[in-house]
Amino acid sequence: MKRTGIIGAMEEEVAILKEKMEHVTVTRKADMEFYQGTLNGCEAVVVRSGIGKVNAGICVQILADVFQVDTIINTGVAGSLKTEINIGDIVLSTDTMYHDMDAREFGYPIGQVPRMDTLTFPADPEIRKKAARICKEVNPEIQVFEGRIVSGDQFVADKEQKNRIIENTQGWCTEMEGTAIGQAAYLNKIPYLVIRAISDKADDSAHVDYPTFEKQAIIHSVNLVEALLPLL
Ligand code: ADE
């Protein structure tokens, strides 16, 4: 049976999944608790990585080395970068890219990690297609989009910063871990998908919207992850 690593940056993003798990054993490492067991009848390791790129990258490496996961799914919330992507909707990553990596001085485009052979980290297209199909069944009231998810160590809550990120990356939504997960998965050759539900518009309204809509957005992402597992 395939084993899936499921990462959420914050406890709120994984709490429901942890509650639904069976036959759980907990392993502590790097200040993270790895819940290994079954979820919806499938082998899974659910973990709160902590916020930001370094926490996310470390988390993937532990899932690879200690738990030998076959697939990695990142669940959580994000700020929308497109007018048609509304609060509550879901974005599935076609690929991920940093918006805060800048080595233009050496001729690299914004986003590219110097001396790496890729600008973006492609997510697994088969997993994405399955997720898009099942999302319409479990979350029929929302839209599901497939596009680029961008990350940086920044909570984006400013219109000008948002517009800069869109111009530099052509991203569809922005968050703080997905690309580090994509990069670590790429280096370890593990198929991955980032699933993000929109909690805000990453502009001047984000401070108000984020706390208001975070909970509902998380439920959409969690519903999808649970339904997706048996299809992997
Ligand atoms: N996660 C949810 N909303 C976000 C935003 N606006 N910026 C960064 N990460 C987020």
From the structure above, extract its key features.
alpha/beta; 5-stranded mixed beta barrel; 6 helices; 10 strands; globular; binds adenine
Order of helices and strands: EHEEEHEEEHEHEHEH
How large is the radius of gyration? Answer: 16 Å
Beta-strand residue fraction: 25-35%
Write out the strand line-up for the largest beta sheet, numbering strands in chain order: 5-9-8-6-10
Task: Explain what the structure shows.
The chain is α/β, with parallel strands linked by helices. It contains six helices and ten strands. The protein has helices spanning 11-20, 53-65, 125-138, 159-169, 178-188, 206-228; strands spanning 3-8, 22-29, 32-39, 42-48, 71-80, 90-98, 121-122, 144-151, 173-175, 192-200. A five-stranded mixed barrel has the order 5-9-8-6-10, surrounded by four helices. β8, α4 and β9 (173-175) form a beta-alpha-beta unit. α1 packs parallel to α6, α2 runs parallel beside α5 and α3 crosses α6 (206-228). The longest helix has 23 residues, at 206-228. The N and C termini lie close together (10 Å). Adenine binds at residues 77-79, 155-157, 174-176, 199-200, 202, 206, 210. Residues 77-79, 155-157, 174-176, 199-200, 202, 206, 210 line the site of adenine.
